[in-house]
Design brief:
The protein is of the alpha+beta class. It has one domain. The protein is built from three helices and 13 strands; from the N terminus they run βββαββαββββαββββ. Strand 6 and strand 7 form a beta hairpin. The longest helix is centred in the last third of the chain and has 16 residues. It is globular and about 50 Å long.
Length: 258
């Protein structure tokens, strides 16, 4: 059974997610003052596909940062209201209808599952070329414990979702999506790019005026190379749209019971 977990609280800059190919679980993020780390880059041609993640801080490309600031000054802050036709707050029947509108899946293609610890409910759908030429991804739509409405949408690319997936393709997908999100106009002070975390690199994190968030995480295995450089071989790419990362609608034991 696949497991779908909520992105845990984003406090300060980031508390991010780390996961296996199909499981997203919380790990401690980097310090709240660190806005970005040096951009990942591919190794020389012919070598194994990797991304480098030295710890030095660096800002996004000047042109990308300027475009984001210009949109913010114009009051054009990106609004995050869900994913495609599926909007936060929708019921499961409405989300299923939105999935059908967006992807026209076969009748039995949409699967359902429950999370026994968070007491949330999810529906899953495998989608070829969710990102053009990006390989097959698995979408997950998560419904809150109390509200029973849509609180998170996630997408995963990995060998588990597509046997033909390669580290090169994962890295390419991550770069395409990062460039797209940097052009979208999220709150400038919410944006973080290329940040090393446990088990991967946060390629992008940004929020809208209501603190709804997008998180793009490239996961893999780090190795120490020459000049003490940490090098990541990508194994999965995770994308999350989160309605309320600070106070997610999941089951929690009331204070004082134990």
């Amino acid at each position: 059974m696949r497991k779908i977990y909520l992105v845990p609280a984003l406090v300060g800059l980031l508390t991010t997610v780390a996961a296996g190919p199909l499981t997203a679980q919380g790990v401690q993020g980097a310090a709240s003052k660190q806005k970005a780390a040096a951009a990942p880059k591919a190794v020389a041609a012919g070598a194994s596909p990797v991304a480098a993640a030295p710890g030095a801080a660096a800002a996004p490309a000047a042109s990308e940062a300027a475009a984001t600031d210009d949109k913010a000054k114009a009051g054009d802050i990106k609004a995050i209201d869900g994913f495609r036709s599926a909007k936060f707050g929708m019921s499961e029947p409405d989300v299923r209808a939105a999935m059908t509108k967006d992807f026209n899946p076969k009748a039995d293609a949409i699967k359902a599952q429950d999370n026994p610890s968070e007491l949330t409910h999810s529906v899953l759908l495998t989608v070829p070329d969710l990102l053009p030429n990006g390989g097959t991804a698995e979408l997950s739509y998560v419904f809150g414990y109390k509200s029973k409405s849509l609180i998170q949408v996630g997408a995963v690319w990995s060998k588990a979702t597509d046997a033909a997936m390669t580290p090169e393709k994962l890295f390419s997908n991550a770069n395409i999506l990062r460039a797209h999100f940097l052009s979208e106009g999220f709150k400038p002070d919410s944006i973080a790019v290329n940040m090393p975390v446990n088990g991967g690199i946060v390629m992008f994190r940004g929020s809208d005026a209501r603190d709804r968030s997008v998180i793009l995480l490239l996961q893999g295995t780090f190795e120490n190379k020459e000049n003490n450089q940490r090098v990541l071989t990508p194994t999965s790419l995770l994308l999350f749209y989160v309605a309320d990362a600070k106070s997610p609608d999941v089951f929690k034991l009331p204070p004082g019971q134990f």
